[in-house]
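Pasting as-is:
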Amino acid sequence: MKSKKKKSSPIVTGAIISLLLIIAIIGSVIYKYDVANRDVTNENDAVTGQEPTNDGEQVPSNDKDDLNVGEIEQPQANTNEDEKPKEGNSDSPDIPTASANGNGTAGSKSETDAPKENEVVKKENGYIVGQQPAKEPTYVDNILIANKKYPLPATFNKGESPEARAALEEMIGEAGKQGYTLVAFSGFRSYEYQTDLYNRYVNRDGKDAADRYSARPGYSEHQTGLSFDIGEKGKENLWLTNGFGETSAGKWLATNAHKYGFILRYPEGKEDITGYMYESWHFRYLEGDTATKVYNAGVTLEEYLGIE
């Protein structure tokens, strides 16, 4: 006798199909929610600048390389041409540049280009660390400046100033009448010559010592063509020594040089201002009666112009 197969009830079949559909719908919703949640997480990571590591931790990403220990970040120079620096004392590291006619100015910075909070200027023996080479010479009140803060371009090569040479010869002539045989044993120096000279001093005495009496290339007043090292003929052993300043000739020169447009550029006791040790032999020419004004005021050129 054959057994009869039981047929599934249509109601049961429909229920099973409905249950499968519900499970599929729920699974789809859960999948979409999970994908959406991942997208939001990735967007948040992008906004906060974080990058996931292989182990799933989040680490901040930097836009620039980290500074090494002990290094100090330098403030950026102002590039806004509408804001010109004013004259006056300033502890800021910006490098003012001359205008096309040579009438550049230097001094305090405006509020917009002042150093930001926590930014510190790092110096080495008076020189600004990381300072970029000058593109133009710096003038303050039409006076050409070359010191440890305001360098000259490597291409500045005007040679010796004829006006300065004429004033020097006049001064030497008057000194001769007083019984002093003065001679300028060093005048204009090119950027290349100063480079060789400075490097020799560094090799001989070390960088710290050399920076007290020799300018780095681009920072030398001799490159202006307006400075001379002066000594007395017959006393060459005192050249480039402060013993010259103790002689009668040296004293006469220090007292009368301003009458011919010259100043003792690096006076005694002013190293913290000029950046160089006392040099009784180094004289700088200034046009007009400026030298007399500086001399009568008893100040350095930096103090007279209100700059560093």
